[in-house]
Write a structure and sequence with these properties.
Distance between the termini: 17 Å
Number of domains: 1
Number of strands: 8
CATH class: Alpha Beta
CATH topology: TIM Barrel
Helix content: 25-40%
Strand content: 15-25%
């Protein structure tokens, strides 16, 4: 199937749900991204800052760029002018750096708190206590150019659907808790980013609003 056909298939699976598609474009050439754009994709996700910065000028201005890989503070300056959402916020230090660089461009960057929900220790992310420590910090209250709009998590890579569902349910519970405790009056805090090519139908069933799909659209990366 073509890129366009694959995008149509995913969009059909999402129809009638709260979920939107983030096309994961890492390692793929700009020409393939343009094919996805022509098929209607507008949300593109990259793992590496250098790749995103290199591809961004080659795509139309209405693309919504999402940083989905771990972001080092010294790399923020390379994407601050255009990134829409950083889905991998894992520290107050990163939020402060995003705020500083976004201010220089007089714009606001959205951020998702990344939680560790998987069994694999290699997966990164916050605990609920660590997330609350960020939200309760005095410096967080002073942020003006970065806005938290939800949470993100990566489930265990496993054929055990019950395990994966449980992890997605855990992330939804963490989202609900933060929404009620810290963001009850903030309509912008509404994103629950979970689900990838292998497990996005399970994530959507558990309330995902953003699914990050790459290989199911482009095939194996290379």
């Amino acid at each position: 199937m073509s890129i366009a056909e694959n995008i149509t298939a995913v969009e059909q699976a999402l129809r009638g749900t709260a979920a939107r598609l983030v096309v994961v474009t890492k390692t793929h050439h700009v020409e393939r991204l343009r094919e996805a754009y022509a098929a209607g994709a507008r949300l593109f996700g990259e793992n590496r800052v250098q790749e995103m910065a290199a591809k961004q000028p080659g795509l139309p201005a209405d693309v919504e760029w999402h940083q989905i890989g771990q972001l080092q503070t010294n790399k923020v300056k390379y994407l601050a002018a255009f990134v829409h959402t950083v889905q991998s916020v894992d520290s107050l230090k990163l939020l402060l750096e995003l705020d500083k660089h976004a201010a220089r461009y007089q714009r606001t960057i959205n951020g998702l708190l990344q939680f560790h929900i998987a069994q694999e220790e290699t997966k990164t992310g916050l605990s609920l206590a660590e997330a609350e420590a960020i939200l309760q910090a005095p410096e967080y209250q002073n942020l003006r150019h970065v806005r938290l709009t939800g949470v993100m998590g990566i489930a265990t890579h496993s054929p055990d659907e019950a395990l994966v569902r449980e992890e997605f349910q855990q992330l939804k519970q963490q989202f609900d808790y933060l929404k009620q405790r810290y963001f009850a009056q903030d309509e912008a805090f509404r994103e629950l980013s979970m689900g990838m090519s292998a497990d996005y139908p399970l994530a959507v069933a558990e309330g995902s609003t953003l699914v990050r799909v790459g290989s199911a659209i482009f095939g194996s990366r290379g």
